[in-house]
């Protein structure tokens, strides 16, 4: 009987369709998944002869190829394969991003908070839809396991969910007759153009810490992701646009020390958010507070 059972199991196994091998290559997505919208800048395919992608900027709601001469290779730490090239944003391109954010601010500030809130609800839905794509990109560019990369996205998604309750969080205060014949009130207003500088270790979570809260409060935003793993931020920008975020409300530029100094020195940027080392934040804080309109 035991031998007969083994034969029957063997026959059943032969009838099953072949299972795909779960090797690293089978998990690897199409390279165009890094920044699938980059094809819109040239009108052609973003992948030619299997060459690494050129990561664009995101300015005024469009993915725009940078004219910067210096390029950083984004390297898969597991294979040492170059998966994309990041041109360093020029000063003129950075100013275009800030200008786009500045122009979008008056209209976005006056957009009803419930409208901004609905965009965050949609963004939340789209991030959940594309969480596998985001996690795969993080694994390829940054080296996390797929499970760790998914957790990276989910932790950032919690902040998007928090932003969905902004209608309540934005309520001001009113105290009648706080003193004889005196009423006091508090109104929450957006600052203007804000900026965020991201580190290497959490490519999705930290951008999601920054721009969803800022834009839902009525600010516009210029994001600088880490130059070594910009793909997650670019995917998030595409999802934000799909969710209905108006052109210019979110912009993304790439670079290293120069672009950080541009952010600190620009008078149109009213607030800077940073996650980084002690050395980085001391430099950025000291340089940014030298201007009167930042960190007051």
Textual characterization of the structure:
InterPro entries: Ald_DH/histidinol_DH, Ald_DH_N, Aldehyde_DH_dom, MeMal-semiAld_DH. Residues 1-52 are annotated as: Disordered. Residues 1-13 have a biased composition (Polar residues). Residues 63-289 form the Aldehyde dehydrogenase domain. Helix 10 (231-243) links the parallel strand 9 (220-224) and strand 10 (250-252). The protein contains twelve helices and eleven strands. It has a domain at 91-295: Aldehyde Dehydrogenase, Chain A, domain 1, CATH 3.40.605. The chain is α/β, with parallel strands linked by helices and 296 residues long. Mean pLDDT is 84; it is low at 1-48. Helix 6 (131-142) packs antiparallel against helix 10. It starts with a helix and ends in an 8-residue tail after the last helix.
Name the CATH homologous superfamily of the domain at 91-295: Aldehyde Dehydrogenase, Chain A, domain 1
CATH topology of the domain at 91-295: Aldehyde Dehydrogenase, Chain A, domain 1
Strand content: 15-25%
Count of alpha/pi helices: 12
CATH class of the domain at 91-295: Alpha Beta
Main structural class: alpha/beta
Using the 3D structure, state the CATH architecture of the domain at 91-295.
3-Layer(aba) Sandwich
Helicity, in percent? 40-55%
Largest sheet: 4 strands, parallel
- What is the mean pLDDT? 84
Overall radius of gyration = 23 Å
| Strand order across the largest sheet | 10-9-8-11
For the secondary structure, the number of strands is: 11
What's the helix-strand series?
HHHEEEEEHHHHHEEEHEHEHEH
Which parts are unreliable, with pLDDT below 50 for 5 consecutive residues or more? 1-48
Q: What's the end-to-end separation, in Å?
A: 83 Å
Shape: globular
